Amino acid sequence: MRNIDLSPLYRSFIGSDQLSSLIESAHRKDNQRAYPPYNIEVLGDDKYRISMALAGFNREQITVEAQGNTLTVRGKQTSSEQANGTKDDADHNTGNVNSEAVTQAETTGNRHSRPSSENTQRKFLHKGISARNFDKTFQLGDHVKVLGAELTNGLLHVDLMRQIPEANKPRRIQIV
Question: Which parts pass through the membrane (predicted)?
Answer without folding.
Answer: none
